[in-house]
TrEMBL record:
Belongs to the glycosyl hydrolase 28 family. InterPro entries: GH28_Enzymes (IPR051801), Glyco_hydro_28 (IPR000743), Pectin_lyas_fold (IPR012334), Pectin_lyase_fold/virulence (IPR011050). The keyword Hydrolase applies. Residues 1-36 form the signal peptide. GO terms for molecular function: polygalacturonase activity. One of its GO terms (biological process) is carbohydrate metabolic process. It comes from the Eukaryota. Keywords: Glycosidase, Hydrolase, Signal. This is Polygalacturonase.
Amino acid sequence: MQWLRSSPSLLRALDPSLLPLAGLLHLLLLLALSSARGSSRCKQTISRVARPHSVAITEFGAVGDGLTLNTKAFQNAIFYLNSFADKGGAQLFVPAGRWLTGSFILISHLTLHLDKDAIILGSMNSDEWPIIDPLPSYGRGRELPGGRHRSLVYGRNLTDVVITDSSNDVCIEDCYISTGDDLIAIKSGWDEYGISFSRPSTNIMIHRIVGETTSSSGIAIGSEMSGGVSEVHAENLRFFNSNRAITIKTSPGRGGYVRNIYISDMTLADVNVAIKFIGRYGEHPDEFYDPNALPIIERITIENVIGESIKFAGLLEGIEGDNFRNICLSNLSLSVTSDSPWNCSHVQGYSDSVSPEPCELLKDRIFPKHYSDCYHLTSHLRNLYRRAWLLSQ
Ligand SMILES: *[C@@H]1O[C@H](CO)[C@@H](O)[C@H](O)[C@H]1NC(C)=O
Ligand SMILES: *[C@@H]1O[C@H](CO)[C@@H](O)[C@H](O)[C@H]1NC(C)=O
Ligand SMILES: *[C@@H]1O[C@H](CO)[C@@H](O)[C@H](O)[C@H]1NC(C)=O
């Protein structure tokens, strides 16, 4: 698999009191499970759980020197902690260090607690990533027919830690992430398999993420999104030295939707493309996909963005006959190096206070007429809108 050859995954919780865990490369990440909605901090339901038993990964022979392979130590520690599952659960503490490991399996009632300077490094040796059955929503392996490599931090049927492909109520907070792939990837199934499996990824909160990826995106949605992706709220993001900040990719044949996406308070530096939409990503699991299954991409709001050394502000390419609609950009200030910072096709939307001047297709003002067409704009615009409405009465 291609991503195994990319640079090792690095994940670190910046504040050890905030996050019980962390997690992985390509298919998704880590999660402090929560039912957060609307607030800028997810409820810390899990990290507050007092675990009566705690062990350190070093008690299982792990060495955090960045060179020693610790897969067995993680597996043995978790196997041992499994015996506390019905006694209030247990905590596995990972102290400061660089902990090289292959894939390991989580259990329920486990807090994987990373110390402030604990870094989990994914092994570059593909033998450390066992092959397992494909996801039902994918039908086959993503890069090749057959199975898929197990993710770095893997789990099934877990009750208080969850790592899946189609995920609900996910919260990703306070992480520094640097990979050779997308830092956070949100997906939900692939073409006819994803359509029939029909499980969306929804209610995903992303807060205070810092990261870099020279080849990919800070946050990527798709291209496999056939089960639908909605209610993604990402705030306080900082991406630097990266290829793209935000990417939404899809293709005819995917079906599904990407809807109600809100991205706010993002700072960018040295980024090739700030916002990228790809409508014809291609790549299908087999020849049985339905080319008429067109995805619906709508109500995407991006606001309060500052960027410097950006090459392109937005390369936004929808699908002919299937415009990406109600794309709303508000308060973007990007210093760009390209002469044509925007390139838009088959998109429809609105903008306010965007510099450089957005493409023609997004030039209509949001405020006041199209305010309600845009997903979840902040109080600043909402107040303006209310005031105007009151004045008009
Ligand atoms: C997970 O749960 C499902 C449904 O309850 C069951 O069919 C499946 O075998 C379980 N998988 C594992 C690995 O326990
Ligand atoms: C515009 O965005 C910047 C960067 O996030 C923020 O500091 C500023 O307060 C925003 N302006 C308004 C009027 O919301
Ligand atoms: C702009 O969009 C057109 C049509 O989609 C495409 O052919 C061209 O390569 C794009 N330019 C850039 C710089 O991406």
